[in-house]
Every structure is written in structure tokens, then in C-alpha cells.
Amino acid sequence: MHFSRTGRWREVVWGLLASVMFALAFSYPILTKISGLGLDHDWDLTMEMHWAPFYTITHFHQFPFWDPYKCGGLPLLGNPQSRILTPFLFLHLLFGPLIGMHLEIIGHLAIGFGGAYFLARVVNIGKLGALSCGATFAGSSWYYIHMAPGHSVFLCIMYVPWAVAFFWLGWRERKLIFAAPTGLIATLIFFEGGIYQTTHLALVLAVLAVALAVQYRSWFPLSLLTIAGIFAVAFSAPKFLPTVHFLGLNPRSVDAFEVNSLSMFVQELFSRNQFFSRDSMGGFWGFWELGAYIDPFFGAMAILAMVFRFRSALPWSITTLVLLALAAGNHGTYSPWVLIHSLPIISGEHAPTRILMLLTIVVGVLAGLGVDLLCSLKKPWLTAAVAIMILLAMVDCWMVSSYNLRYMLAGGNPTPYEPTPVFQQYYERNDNRMFMLAISNHGAVNCYESAYSWGRNAHGANEDGYRGEQYLVGSGTLGLARWTPNRLDYDIDARARATLIINQNYDSDWKIVQGTGEVFKSNGLLAVRVPAGKQRLELRYSSPSFVTGCFIFLLGIGAAISIHFAERKSPSASVESPESSRDSGADQSATPSVESTEAPESQVENAQADKPNGSQDQDLG
Fold first, then answer.
1. Spatial distance between the Cα atoms of 49 and 29, rounded to a whole number of angstroms
2. What is the pTM for the complete model shown?
3. Which domain holds residue 535?
4. Does residue 107 contact residue 159 with C-beta atoms inside 8 Å?
5. How many Å separate Cα 368 from the centre of its chain?
6. Is the dihedral angle over the CA atoms 19, 25, 27, 31 positive or is it negative?
7. Do 296 and 392 share a domain, yes or no?
8. What percent of the chain has pLDDT over 90?
9. Is the pLDDT of residue 600 over 80?
10. What residues contact 611, with CB distance under 8 A and at least 6 apart?
11. Cα–Cα distance between 372 and 379 in angstroms, integer?
12. Are residue 253 and residue 301 in the same domain, yes or no?
């Protein structure tokens, strides 16, 4: 983007305002009931997962390493779906997890619209085209039909356009330093529980990098992708290493059995019936796993770009086709989804239609290119007609998608449990009552957690065989001195060697920090062999892998600083793709005009043909 500093900041301000207005308009169902509680579907799981760190920090003043309130006790930071290491945690601490969660939905919506707009501008798309890109992505139904049943881990997809934009900037400017923000945004996605979203972003960037490398005969996109991946691993280490520890306790692999047909694609992408619990057309999952609405106008603009701006659209067109092939699922041994499903991490993922969420940002870029093509004809009546069609398409997306958010508040009057002054495990036949049990100081031994499958070890206080939250096997006395999520203190007077049994799951990160004994696993529970005698025994749960991860994170920061200074000393090596070269010096972003100044594709290609052989490729490296 080539425009003055004043014009740039003016557009930034207007872009922020547009993003906020878009988010408020599309989240209207929750604005009037910002403190409303809904626990249907996965909202119970979501609220418990956000309440546990909130309560651990505000009440016990501890970092939320361990969650005793679910499944008999699980690692909290290491849970792949945990969302602790995010700036939005401060909203939860300020307003509580309920209002904080609703504010997050609005905030991420603004981030997604603004990111898609920014991506389009980085690709040298005009302002009208950038608005189309933002609306195609943030107005698609996938966001709203996932929020309705409580899939908070999909909020982080709204960061994807920013990661793609910085990757494209790195390619355009031939600067490796842009790999650092690309990796940092991928890390933020992972920190917010986005396992699927992180791997799908990697797929999108990989396809774009290969397409650019082949199209321009340059190794640089692949080098940029590799370094961005290294930064992502380094920056994500504070959670990645605890997650590896967690998955080591509970490995997961699923079959790649889902199939998505052509008729299903038509309904998922273009049907105006995007109700989150509508008929799934024979699909294994509910429609909330399928829908990703694209307004017909935006779809038509994308096709227009693929045909008439072939060279500019080629990387995005290839990415679109690859994502569609992956989302098609299992159509045989050599189906793309089956082939990549054997890769680490992806082998534990299901629902290939989730890839359609990222398809909408790629289609958004193509739609922006198509809008630019029409605006480049320099006919005021056509530009006005395009602007009106974009507005109508936004209204259509609003009507099709946003109403799903009202169903977030369903099931909002659950029966509370009698609070207990001291924490107790409790058995509830309904595994969708974890949040209500947690806020009454109970742990739900019968739980729903997709990352947990090693069986039920703890006993509820209302079950036969319950002997307390701690008991001594052997002769002696035992008293609870202190109970917190991460720290357990006991006064023990053992007449002979004895065993302390704690009614929580065993994890090797529980360590003795005071007293004498040996921590071990007893029938899946945390246990300590203690010698004869009287002592204060203190157990503490910490995460050595988190400390190691923080050190690796700092190394990543140091590497980014080193690359920055190294590239500052080297000559500028800006790379101009065809669309950026013809836009160079002609962008009107500093003026009120919304028209693109790009020449028609045919003129550009004729101009390229007049160049000496190999001149363009030489410029592109």
C-alpha cells in the first residue's frame, strides 16, 4: 500500500470504527443480555473451562496449572482447549467469565473483520474490495453457528487473516522478520485453544507458499514459511510443552471417516438456512460443523477474479481448490483428507468441514480482487452499483448468520447445587453439569472433556465406596491443613509406614515440597507413601515444562530481534508481485476515492509481455 502517513492513519481510524460497528451489528442478540447465562450444548464445558482459571486466580491467587473441578482433576494449562494465555483473560478477571465470554465474542468479531480488511489492503486491493473481504469472512455463518452451541475455541480463527497478511507482507517485501509476527499470531491462536485452527492455518500458508514459489520460481516463500513455523513453535512453547505432557497422559487418534458430497457443499456454502441445529443432510456431525455461508455476490466476485485476474488470483485460487478438496473428506485411500490425516496432531482431528472456515477468508480475498476489477473500469455508475451490492450482501450475511447468537442463552436456569465449605468430588449422572458443580465447590467426576479418556478414578461424595477427599491407608491420623487447586497441605501422624490417598487423578507434576514421602499412582489416583512419624506434608502442582517453554519463548524473541537488525543492515530487497507492481505509485488510499487504480488484467499482461525475457523473474528472485 503506497500512501501518505496522514492517509494511512486516517484509514486505520476508519477501519477500526468500521470493525467495531460491524461487530456490534452482528452480535446484537447478546448485547441486550450481556450477563445472560446459557448452558445448553457445550456451553457447560466452555463456562467451566473459563470459570476454573478465573476462580483460581481471583480466589486462590495461583496460576491456573491444575483444574480439580473436572474429571477428577486435570492439567488446566496443558489442556489443548484451555484459553488461559490470551489477552482476553483480563476481561474475565475484570467482569467475570460470563460477561467476559460475551465481550470476547464481540471483540473477536471486530478483530476478524479488521484483519480481513488489512489482508486485502496488503494484497493491494482497494477499499471497496477490502470491505468485501472483511464481510465475506466475518459475516460468514460458521462463526455464529459455532458460538450458538458454545464452541469458544473457534473464536481464535478471527486472528487468521492477520497471520496470512504478515506472511504476504514478508513475501512482498522479501523480509524474513515478518515470519516473527506470523508465528506470534499462530501462537496466539494456539494459546486460545485453537488446535484445529493452528494446523489449518499451517495448511493455508503452506499451499500459498508452494503456489508462490512455483508461480514466481522463488525459494523465498518456502524459506519464509519455514522460519515462521520455527517462530510459532518457539513462541508457543509455554503452552505447547505442557500440552505435550497432557497428551502423553491421554493420546488421541480418530478415524478419517467423514464424507462431504457436492450437494452438501452447496447447502453448506450457499443455503440461506444456516440455523445451527438444522438437518445435517446425512453428515455425521450437526450443522454447526458444516455451515460456512458465502453470499452469492461475494461468490460471483471471487469467480470473476479467478477468471479475469488469473495471475493475481492464482495463489488464492489454488488454495481455494485445495481447501475444498480437503473439506470433501474421505472419498478413498488417496483423498487429500485421508492422506494428511496420518500426520501428527492432524491424526487426532475430525470434521474436515471445519476447513471451510478458513476457506471463507481465501474466498474473501478473491472477492476483493473481483470488486477491484469492476472498479478499475472507472465508471462511476458501476462503482456505485458495486458499493450498493456490497452493502446488500452485508445485510444478507447479517440476516443469515447473526440470529444464531440468541441461542447462546438457551438453558439458562439450571438448578444450583448446595455449596460445600470444603471441596468435594460429586457424581452427577448428567455430564453436562460441570459448571454448576464447580461454582458450588464440587468436582464433577462424571465429565465431558474431548481431551480426556483415561477413565474415571475419583469417587463422588454421594457414591458408595467414598472414603473422603483424602484418607490414610495404614495406622495413624490425617488432617487437611490447606486445600487449593495447586497446593495441598496435610498434617500426618503415622504410627508405621502408611499411604496417603488423595481423591484426584495422578499426574507426575505433583511434587512434595515439604515433608517426606514418595509420590506414586494408586488405581489412577494421586498417592504418597509416607514414613512413620509426625509431619506437615505439602504437595504442589507446578509445570516444569511451562518454565522451559518460557525460556524458549525468550529465545524466540531474541532471534526475532537479531533478524530485525540483520535485515536493517542489508539492502532493501522488496519483491513486487504483478498486482503490486502495477499498483505502485497509483494507489489512492490517501484520498476519499474508493476506486481501484489497477489496470485491467489484459493490459497488465500485455505490458509484461513487452519486457525482456526473464526480467520479471529476475526481479522476483
1. 23
2. 0.87
3. 470-542
4. no
5. 24
6. positive
7. yes
8. 70
9. no
10. none
11. 12
12. yes
